[in-house]
Amino acid sequence: MGTKERLLELLEAEKGRYASGEEIAQALCVSRAAVWKAVKALRQEGYPIEAATNRGYCLSNKADVLSVQGIRKALNPVCRNVNIIVVPTVDSTNALIREMAGRGEPEGCVVVAGEQTAGRGRRGRQFYSPKDTGIYISLLLRPKHCAIERATGFTSMAAVAMCEAIESVSGEAAQIKWVNDVFVRGKKVCGILTEASLDMENGEAEYVVLGAGVNVYPPGDGFPEELKAVAGTVFEELHSDAKNRLAGEFLNRMMAFYAAPDADAYVEKYRARSLVLGKRITVLQGESARSATVCDIDGACRLLVRYDSGETACLSYGEIQVRV
User: Fold this and answer.
1) 250-293 pLDDT, tens digit each
2) CATH number of domain containing 12
3) 316: domain range?
């Protein structure tokens, strides 16, 4: 790490407390001029570093700026092999991780961005990813002997992990609309997109890219007209370090599920958080729209429904859209 990164790590560890330039210089084994240069560079990147005569420098407690150092503070030992990359903006975190995976990047690589210019949702739809109000995170996994059908389960696993992360950081109850949307206070705050690369020789997943986009705060100009009725946010106003903590807690829970001896340990939690169990829904398949009642969610997180005709069906990912 360079001086700038080491300074940010030090300030994150002592967030809200002032440290003198001399104290910092000694801790980093650099000159006071180098400390000032690093402070200036971090400020230009948006980090709210305060300075006071005879007191030194302090990373404001009121800040909510994404950083590798801030996320790492929130991580548990289960994430010891996670390699975090934070970028202010990117076309798509999933696209960047896929590119890195193709170059042989090992499992555990994570890209976190504060903005996406070409974010994508399911079925190639655009995913609204405005600057500074959300977190957009993608994780690379290389599961062993994972059939491609099994890989789809990572979507529901991530949904549970995100629900738990949101509740841990905000105290708000979070629920899942089958299959990949997380809701808070009746509105969607997170979408999840899982993509896998298939090994054609054995039919197994070569790697899995797991992406999640979270609306942490309301956009300054509000949501676009087409999203106003459905889109919500985790918080209504600024909370100190919420983005870093949310990213960290999501990784803690996701990696714990991934490493669990019982590969389906998350399924009951998914079922318990479902927004659609027992509800009347409309199942959209191609040009058809059929009314149904949700009877259950099975061990593979597929939706078991009974149509008004009396016919039953087991719906898998990618086949349908569900409208509650």
Assistant:
1) 999 999 999 998 878 899 999 999 999 999 999 888 888 899 99
2) 1.10.10.10
3) 280-323
